[in-house]
Design brief:
The protein is built from 15 helices and seven strands. By secondary structure, it is of the alpha/beta class.
Amino acid sequence: MERLNNPFVIYGYKGAEYFCDRQKETETIMRALHNERNVALISPRRIGKTGLIHHAFAQITNEHPDIRCFYMDINATRNLQQFVELFAKTFSITVSNDQKEESLKHVLDYLKDSDKRIYVAIDEFQQISEYPEKNVEALLRSHIQFIPNVVFVFAGSKQHIMAEMFTSAKRPFYQSSQMLSLSPIDKKVYCEFANNLMEKKCMKLSEDVFGYVYDIVDGQTWYVQHILNRLYDIGGEIDIRLVNDTIMTSVMEQEVAFLNYYESLTYNQSQLLLAIARDKAVESVLSQDFIHRHSLPASSSVSLALKALIEREFVYKYNGKFIIYDRFFAIWLRNL
């Protein structure tokens, strides 16, 4: 594989050399698929689930060249027809545009009739719950449970929807998959990984400085990688001041987008978002202490604002606390 000018990958999967840790999670996925267990991989965006899937598939392909691994991201699909078209395209199959259910069966029958063992990852799987057709979950489940040579990874970032889909006895995918959630990469392990790559440019990160980078974005992989990518580009000695300057440069590059986000909110929503940003992580946004300290409206209004912010993915609940989804947006908000 071609050597990268900058080893801190922000987008895509560039190989094991540039992939940090996740050994346990990789092994979990590989063992589950090997033993015909579907996997439901649930994590927030930008923590590395897509990279983990590609890493696991790369390991599988390397160890078992006869196994076929396929990945598809359905986040942009809006109905069953678009899902079927993307599914078919992933396997280079032609399907009819007006026979959705029959076309889906055609694709799955094609996989079933293959003489190969096949692993399929469907990313942002919760999207099927938003299709206008009402029976998509049941339809898909009814077909895939009878394809012995195909095993699935169902990955999703909307945790509450994914959890409902796979843990509620009322839903078709109940108990159909082994559950796997992602936590941030261990700080010490990540620091060692970063320094191994920094050494190629005669650079070094002290534990304190890396810890500062890690903590300011809560260990979220994409943001850590983004900051390290910029620091590697700058070169030289890395200290807290340089880290802060680098982060603020990245934040201000996105100010136009952040202004648009902020101006799209109602007054109550913007005030609640600011309050969460200032506290960084909030256990209960409806507590009187939180409402009083930030001069927020009545709890009923705060509750409505919170629901809207969650639906628009500005805020989500992580480890029992509400936080801003976009860590750079949170930093921008705190600097208003």
